[in-house]
Design goal:
- This protein is an alpha/beta fold.
- The chain is built from twelve helices and 20 strands.
- Helices cover 31% and strands 21% of the residues.
- The two termini are 23 Å apart.
- The structure holds guanosine-5'-diphosphate (GDP), 6-O-phosphoryl inosine monophosphate and magnesium ion.
- The site of guanosine-5'-diphosphate has 23 residues, from helix 1 and strand 3.
């Protein structure tokens, strides 16, 4: 038995939450492998909408174990808000959720460092979600971090105070004051609640499940172009969002990775700063934003919008060894007469089809134009009923990437999903 993986192939918000929820009935375990509350994964069913930040998107299903894996960074306050929200909806979270002891904690001071360092960057700010993600991963890498398992130690409070003091000293370089007292009190209370949850050695648990032939789906956060190593650095997040992140974030050997499902929107969006070669800073972009309701699920910020970028998509497919593609939000393009796709970049007199090291240089995308389908597809449930123009678009993407598009999503609801044979 192998672990299948769901990944975003663009700059996040591709629809991972919806797709994981749709795929969950075929699995007994859903495991989040990286990121933290910077993520916002939306799910819709029965005319209700839910947004998850830290909790895996299989949580609404019976008889499914959801694991927050060791590669995740956890803010206990946000996690408890999520848990309480789910409990109010009648979801028995305690019976369905396991949390890795190796996952690192986001401290109140991590959030302040995030805000202070973004403010100090001015124009060059990353556009972080300000959830303390970068500083928490920084402490993990420089080996100062506190892990979930540490909260069981009698020395936890002392270790917390020591790290907090390091942060206060570090913050002296910034002209930034921010009292943490209220948030800290809440944080410490949530740590007490976290102690009552099953805290596990997730690498052992997951590998045991594998040996019992249980079906496991690994859920990624963010997108491949936000990967710390292969994204548009430094305008990235602080974890490995590519497939390899599932191995390091869960303790799964590379040979135990099975199918890799790569999700992409029929166009592109990006929230926060950084290069975006096919960005449409015009009326067309505004039309996509409006029709696609492109506003951040975590921060509410308007998302930048643009045409599909095959150069970037092919790169993401390559880095993660994507075996199946999933296209979302095709319905957002319903009313467009024509649709454009970048097939190459024109950079300083040269044409390339390979994503270059620096994508912040002036890039002129080379576009291929497709005829739009010009009719609503949100109510279609059968592949054979999809417009021929949309299928031409899909076939082109398959030919360019060499990977089949297995699912076409035509709306935010669970039901608005077409599985291709
Ligand atoms: P995630 O971070 O990858 O889980 O994606 P988000 O939840 O942040 O953003 C995706 C948004 O698009 C959410 O509001 C979803 O409800 C919505 N969505 C997902 N799939 C589709 C689709 O096929 N069509 C439309 N119109 N909306 C979709
Ligand atoms: P999901 O899982 C879209 C972006 C931020 C910023 C950069 C760094 O919902 O797809 P960070 O808070 O990680 O330091 O921010 O990454 N970003 C996301 N953009 N979707 C996300 O998650 C994101 N998580 C982080 O906007 O540009
Ligand atoms: Mg999102």
């Amino acid at each position: 038995m192998k672990v299948n993986v769901v990944l975003g192939l663009q700059w996040g918000d591709e629809g991972k939450g919806k797709i994981v929820d749709v795929l969950t009935p075929a699995y007994s375990v859903i495991a989040r492998f990286q990121g933290g509350p910077n993520a916002g994964h939306s799910l819709e069913f029965d005319n209700k909408k839910f947004v998850l930040h830290t909790i895996p998107s299989g949580i609404f299903h019976n008889n499914v174990t959801n694991i927050i894996g060791s590669g995740v960074v956890i803010d206990p306050v946000i996690l408890m808000e999520e848990i309480n929200g789910l409990k109010q909806l009648g979801v028995p979270v305690e019976q369905r959720l396991l949390i890795a002891k190796r996952a690192h904690l986001i401290l109140p001071t991590h959030r302040i460092i995030d805000a202070a360092s973004e403010a100090a960057k001015g124009e060059t700010k990353i556009g972080s979600t300000l959830k303390g993600i970068g500083p928490a991963y920084m402490d993990k890498i420089i080996r100062h971090g506190l892990r979930v398992g540490d909260i069981l130690s009698p020395a936890f409070r002392d270790r917390y105070e020591t790290l907090k003091q390091k942060h206060i000293d570090y913050l002296k370089q910034f002209d930034y004051t921010c009292p943490i007292d209220d948030y800290e009190q809440q944080w410490l209370t949530c740590i007490d609640v976290l102690r009552t949850f099953p805290l596990i050695e997730s690498e052992w648990v997951l590998n045991k499940y594998l040996s019992e032939s249980q079906k496991i789906l690994a859920e990624g956060a963010q997108g491949s172009l936000l990967d710390i190593d292969f994204g548009s650095y430094p305008y990235v997040t602080s974890s490995n969002t590519v497939c390899a992140g599932a191995c390091t974030g869960l303790g799964i050997a590379p040979g135990k990775i099975g199918d890799v499902y790569g999700i992409f929107k029929a166009y592109c969006t990006r929230v926060g700063s950084g290069p975006f070669p096919t960005e449409l800073a015009n009326e067309t972009g505004e039309r996509i934003r409006h029709t696609g309701r492109e506003f951040g699920a975590t921060t509410g910020r308007p998302r930048r919008t643009g045409w599909l970028d095959m150069v970037a998509l092919k790169y993401a497919v390559l880095i993660s060894g994507v075996t199946h593609l999933i296209m979302t939000k095709a319905d957002v393009l319903d009313s467009f007469e024509s649709i454009q796709v970048a097939v190459a970049y024109h950079i300083q007199g040269q044409v390339t089809r390979q994503l270059p090291f620096e994508i912040d240089k002036p890039i002129e995308p080379v576009y291929k134009t497709f005829k739009g389908w010009n009719r609503p597809i949100a109510n279609i449930r059968k592949e054979g009923e999809l417009p021929v123009e949309l299928m031409n678009y899909v076939r082109f993407i398959e030919e360019e990437t060499g990977v089949p598009v297995k699912i076409i999503s035509v709306g935010p609801d669970r039901e608005q999903t077409i599985m291709r044979s």
